[in-house]
Design goal:
heterotrimer; A alpha/beta (250); B mainly alpha (314); C mainly alpha (289); A: 250 residues; alpha/beta; Rossmann fold; 2 domains; four-stranded antiparallel β-sheet; 10 strands; globular; B: 314 residues; mainly alpha; ABC transporter involved in vitamin B12 uptake, BtuC; two-stranded antiparallel sheet; 15 helices
């Protein structure tokens, strides 16, 4: 059974057709990339999957359920957690506090006004464990807005992980990053995928990065799927070369 | 961490010993009670304003309702002052709980306009329902009754009433403090910081805004109940939007991001009001209005915000 | 029936005032991102200035001068105080600022003109009833409705046809883009604020001919104006007009049947609108929700 399946998805804004009859299917444990030039509809696709706004037509299936009408916050509980292209964190809180919000939500105790000591300990341990995973342990006490851009993005990924996603959606995880930061993020993504078998669907515009780590790639152009397949197949696809690689080369 | 213990210790010590030092600096106990009453209401409001990031401008409604609840309870049902306080608290909290769903989906300016408009509903009801609320003239004819403690009966004179208020202030402040260090409080702060991120971490933002609104209403109701007892009187003015503005400015003036900010703001506001209204009885609104403007332009982070900034710089 | 007509007509007039006030408030909210709590204050100032000037320049002169002075004061306030608020992401500060200013206006007006209400003379020609059966249809009341209608149409024409008006509308949609196109957004905001307060002043002078002038006359009007904007939909100017008319009429009709509830009914309408159609009658989806 596939983890995520989009059937015939379209999204229309007024007169603009942002996505048209998009099909996408992803198995568990994959590292799957969506690429395409600016305005191709990549982020729109993420917004539909994560419940930011509804699809105009078509169906979204996740983990055996049709989730078209499931509100965004409930999709997180189902295991669908996303990051944003423009970093969304809790800027005035520390790294630790940022991640703790997610851990507490995952422990279903966000509504607890007076938690017991055991619960607090459990939560703190889980936060530290997550910070170790993503290499933020040393920064735990720092205010997020004072961190480097790359580290802020890692904080956002760590928060997403705190909800133990079945599918992690990363919207251009390396956007705005320098070389070193990008390398760190790529290593993190690959580690999550290889060591923890984390299923990841990510949007990226950096071609080399995508071809280096993704199992499968879907290419979007003008809201339509141009090609889907292994990196090798996609790179060889004449349509893709014309529409995307040709443009990048030019 | 240790600094926080010192600050809290100092605040509670000063509040507990107010009867000893306040007269020395020219204050009087009724003034101190008034400060605590407004500080409590502003602290409740600040849970919403400073810690959940929701700009409520109608908090006077729940403050006033608490007062009417207590006043009517004492007039018609009981002679127990404590029970009357509990009743007022429940009335204020219940109203906020019931109206929460109307406001919980709004943000920013919209939240402010709707909370203030809802507050006006209660104002007009209190003003028009003469037979029950005393109408425009307000509700008088009740007074705080002596406390029966089992072993003794304590008349609530100015000093005893201050400690009576301080007792409830401590409960309210304690509840807020515990809350802010709990997962629920963490979630409120997360919503203030970034609604979208909170939502996409699986947090149902509206439900938490509702919870925060209701809790602020409970605290405002408690403070309003104490206010009614303080004056042995309650009038529609306590529900009016100007009163809501006063509570907001106290929180802003002291520092919205600080736990004790609203207390500092209440001390300044009530102090200035008391001073100015005795020397310029006809024009104190200009002073208060000027205070608003100066505070907003020059001290947007409040007095405690400046103190914190200075300490960081040093 | 006659009572209903009487109260309904009063409601229409009230609604027209709310509409005019809401229009100005809405303009300021949309472009300046400020909830102008002092909007009722500007109305009062316009009215009192007209009252003071009328003996020298006559009713018609005062009808023009009062609003223009209110607009002028609006520009000064915007340039000296409100502009400090533009960079602040949290709208609470602009709210408190104008709130403080509203308190000052009320106090100053009371100090200058006294707390007691004062009557405002209208031309005798407008004072008498048009018809003996419908005694409440005085010339002045009909004039007020016509004047508000003309002002509203003039404003919409200004926003649609003039260069400056089109820039204001563009600024409401996307101020950043307008600024990168080289439009002076400082001027745009100042003039917009002034137009808003001018409309408030105009409402004030017109109201002065019907009610007595009192320093507190802006207090209740500002709340009704908020309600009109919320009911009509924040961000929609036409919605503000509709919202104002609707709540005014509703308050009038309620007076005929159950006077005690006439103040509350507009808030009940607001609550119902919020439940049934949260964005307001003509509001855009998603905006501020």
């Amino acid at each position: 059974m596939s983890l995520l399946r989009l059937t015939n998805i379209s999204r229309v804004f007024g007169k603009l057709v942002a996505l048209q009859n998009v099909e996408l299917e992803m198995e568990e444990g994959r590292l799957y990339a969506v690429i395409g030039p600016n305005g191709a509809g990549k982020t729109t696709l993420f917004n539909l999957i994560s419940g930011f706004f509804p699809a105009t037509s078509g169906e979204i299936w996740f983990d055996g359920r049709q989730i078209n009408r499931v509100p965004a916050a409930d999709r997180v509980a189902l295991g669908l957690v996303r990051t944003f292209q423009i970093t969304e964190v809790f800027p005035e809180l520390s790294v630790f506090e940022n991640v703790r919000i997610g851990v507490e939500a995952e422990a279903r105790c966000s509504t607890r006004p007076w938690p017991g000591g055991a619960l607090i300990r459990q939560i703190n341990e889980r936060v530290e464990e997550l910070l170790e995973t993503t290499g933020l342990g040393a920064q735990a006490g720092r205010i997020v807005s004072e961190l480097a851009h790359g580290d802020q993005r890692v904080v956002e990924v760590t928060m997403a992980l705190s909800r133990r996603p079945k599918l992690l959606l990363l919207d251009e995880p390396t956007a705005g990053m320098g070389q070193e930061e990008t390398a760190h993020m790529v290593r993190l993504i690959r580690d999550l995928h290889v060591r923890q078998q984390q299923s990841i669907l990510f949007i990226e515009h950096d071609m080399d990065l995508v071809f280096g780590i993704a199992d499968r790639i879907t290419v979007l152009n003008y809201g339509k799927v141009l090609a889907t397949g292994t990196p090798r197949d996609v790179a060889a696809d004449p349509l893709v070369q014309a529409a995307y690689l040709g443009e990048a080369a030019a | 961490m240790s600094r926080r213990i010192y600050v809290n210790g100092a605040v509670w010590l000063l509040l507990l010993t107010a009867a000893l030092w306040l007269p020395l600096i020219g204050g009087y106990m009724a003034l101190a009670s008034r400060v605590l009453v407004y500080a409590l209401a502003a602290m409740g409001l600040n849970l919403l304003l400073g810690f959940t990031g929701c700009m409520s401008f109608g908090e006077a409604a729940y403050f006033g309702l608490g007062g009417y609840g207590t006043g009517l309870f004492l007039t018609h049902l009981t002679h127990s002052t404590v029970l009357a306080v509990v009743a007022g608290t429940i009335v204020g909290g219940l109203a906020a709980f019931l109206f929460g769903p109307l406001v919980m989906r709004r943000r920013g300016i919209y939240f402010a306009m709707i909370t203030v408009a809802i507050g006006q509903i209660f104002y007009f009801i209190a003003e028009r329902w003469n037979s029950f609320t005393g109408g425009e003239d307000g509700l008088a004819g009740f007074s705080r009754q002596p406390l029966h403690l089992g072993f003794a009966t304590v008349p609530l004179d100015a000093v005893a009433f201050y400690y009576f208020v301080l007792f409830f202030f401590a409960i309210g402040a304690g509840v807020i403090a515990l809350l802010l260090h709990s997962p629920l409080g963490h979630t409120f702060i997360a919503i203030r910081e970034n609604r979208r991120r909170a939502q996409f971490l699986g947090i149902h933002v509206e439900r938490y805004v509702w919870a925060s609104f209701a809790i602020a209403g409970v605290i405002a109701g408690l403070a309003g109940a104490l206010n009614a007892l303080q004056n042995n009187f309650i009038s529609p003015i306590n529900l009016y939007w100007v009163e809501s503005g006063n509570l907001v400015i106290m929180a802003v003036l002291g520092g919205m991001r600080s736990f004790w900010g609203p207390l500092v703001g209440a001390i300044i506001f009530v102090g200035i009001q008391d001073y100015v209204s005795s020397y310029f009885p006809n024009n104190w609104e200009t002073f208060i209005g000027g205070l608003f403007i100066v505070a907003v332009i020059f001290f947007p982070n409040g007095i405690l915000g400046i103190v914190r900034w200075r300490m960081k710089a040093a | 029936m006659e009572l209903l007509l009487f109260d309904g007509f009063n409601g229409l007039i009230q609604g027209a005032f709310y509409a005019l006030m809401a229009l100005g408030l809405s303009l300021i909210i949309s472009l300046n991102s400020v909830i102008n709590f002092a909007h009722g204050g500007f109305m009062v100032v316009g009215a009192y200035l007209a009252y003071t000037l009328a003996p020298y320049i006559g009713f018609w002169g005062a009808l023009l001068a009062g609003p223009i002075l209110a607009g002028f004061i609006g520009i000064i306030v915007e340039r000296t105080l409100v502009r400090h608020m533009y960079g602040r992401p949290d709208p609470i500060y602009s709210l408190l600022l104008t709130f403080g200013f509203a308190l000052i206006i009320e106090d100053v007006v009371r100090t200058i003109w006294g707390a007691q209400g004062v009557p405002f003379e209208i031309p005798a020609a407008l004072g008498s009833p048009v018809s003996t059966t419908y005694f409440f249809l005085t010339g002045y009341r009909l004039f007020v409705i016509a004047a508000i209608a003309v002002a509203t149409i003039a404003l919409f024409a200004f926003l649609r046809l003039s260069r400056f008006g089109i820039r204001i509308r563009a600024g409401i949609l996307d101020l950043e883009t307008v600024s990168t196109l080289g439009v002076n957004v400082y001027l745009l905001r100042s003039v917009n604020f002034a137009i808003g307060t001018l409309l408030a002043g105009f409402a004030g002078v017109l109201a002065a001919g019907i009610l007595q002038l009192a320093p507190t006359m802006g207090d209740d009007v500002i709340m009704a104006t908020f309600v009109a904007v919320v009911v009509g939909g924040i961000g929609s100017l036409l919605g503000s007009v509709l919202g104002g008319l609707l709540i005014g009429l509703a308050a009038g009709v309620t007076t005929a049947y159950y006077p005690a509830a006439s103040d509350v009914v507009i808030y009940i309408i607001m609550a119902v609108v919020l439940i049934v159609r949260p964005r307001g009658l003509l509001g855009q989806e998603g905006l501020f929700e």
